[in-house]
From TrEMBL:
Keywords: Membrane, Signal, Transmembrane, Transmembrane helix. This is Polymer-forming cytoskeletal protein. The chain crosses the membrane at residues 208-229, 249-269, 275-294, 306-323, 329-350. The lineage of its organism: Bacteria, Bacillati, Bacillota, Clostridia, Peptostreptococcales. Residues 1-23 form the signal peptide.
Length: 353
């Protein structure tokens, strides 16, 4: 979960950098696109809302989804008929009726008037006072003072069940600390799993199974990538001589591509191309550890057969990705290198033509 939160916040930084480059409000069909430092939406929106900036306030009816990233986000609406997908530092949600809420932030506050189908939240501090069918949360401190008609699934440091907390379904808690209970709920109602702080990844069987499956998927993707782009991996040693150049170009590309893509989307005419670029950009972000793993394997296992190189390199890079803190640095360096590598390859191909 920590790696996923770091991934989300990296994207948030990119979106915030993007929002400072230009300020624009655009309506495409019934959808609203807004990019500005301070955004205030006080009119009904017939479609989806895409808002990225520093502070965002949405106060009216939204008939579609809300997809937003900012430092501070406040949503106070009678109804959001679609889903709410938001990332930020401080999130305040007060929506009387909506579908699913997916949120990641430093602090998340969900008011007592909020009514949703399901909530998926990750934050340092989560304060829930509303009404929902199911709640899945991960964080340091989680306060529950609302009504959950279905299941409550929590992975946290401390869970506090307040006076008004009601859970009609199953309660599952993973935490180093026993839940603090101030409501009618008792410890007998809770499926509590005590975890050792700092060792959750290794002690949790489901996480281990997920990592094994993820490694197998990465290895399969590695073989496919190597077969299709075999020529690009032939001279890995020579490619690595310019590693600083790749990292610098890759970091620039990492920031510039979202800017260019969003500008194209805003022009409406260039929207399909902008969306395709963002999709390819996301695919490269996902595959970057696999590509770096192939290169690492070719360096470390030079005299071995190609399948040993792919297996060894990907397994090593995936194990590095399991180490707290180091994993994020390794992922960011891998992403910058691969972005630079791909950018230079594309440039050389275009230059040759």
């Amino acid at each position: 979960m920590k790696k996923k939160i770091l991934y989300i916040f990296t994207l948030l930084i990119i979106f915030i950098l993007t929002s400072n480059v230009f300020a624009e409000n655009t309506t495409t069909s019934s959808n609203l696109f807004s990019f500005n430092n301070n955004i205030s939406i006080d009119k009904d929106v017939d479609g989806d809302v895409y808002a990225f900036g520093q502070t965002i306030s949405i106060d009216n009816l939204v008939l579609g989804d809300i997809i937003s990233a900012a430092k501070d986000i406040s949503i106070e609406s009678e109804e959001v008929k679609g889903n709410i997908r938001i990332v930020g530092q401080k999130l305040d949600i007060n929506v009387k009726n909506t579908k699913n809420i997916t949120a990641a932030a430093e602090n998340i506050s969900i008011s007592k008037d909020t009514n949703s189908n399901a909530i998926y939240a990750a934050a340092r501090s989560i304060n829930f006072k509303g009404y929902t069918n199911d709640l899945y949360a991960s964080g340091e401190t989680i306060f529950i003072d609302g009504i959950i008609k279905g299941d409550l699934n929590v992975d946290c440091e401390t869970l506090v069940l307040m006076e008004n907390a009601e859970v009609m379904g199953n309660i599952k808690v993973k935490s180093p600390n026993q839940p603090v209970i101030n409501s009618k709920i008792t410890l007998n109602d809770i499926d509590y799993e005590k975890v050792t702080k700092g060792n959750e990844v290794w002690l949790n069987k489901s996480d281990i199974s997920w990592e094994i499956m993820s490694i197998c998927t990465a290895i399969l993707m590695g073989f496919i990538i190597y077969i299709i782009f075999k020529k690009s991996f032939i001279e890995v040693d020579r490619n690595l001589k310019g590693i600083i150049k790749y990292l610098l170009i890759g970091l620039s590309t990492l920031i510039l591509i979202p800017i260019i893509s969003i500008l194209m989307i805003i022009t409406i005419i260039g929207m399909p191309i902008g969306i395709i670029i963002l999709i390819l950009y996301s695919i490269i972000m996902y595959l970057c550890p696999v590509i770096v793993g192939i290169m690492l394997g070719k360096i470390l296992f030079t005299k071995s057969r190609f399948y040993i190189q792919i297996l060894g390199g990907i397994i090593i890079i995936r194990l590095i990705m399991l180490i707290p803190y180091i994993s994020f640095v390794a992922w960011l360096l891998s992403l910058s290198f691969v972005m630079g590598f791909v950018s230079i390859k594309i440039y050389l191909l275009l230059k040759a033509k």
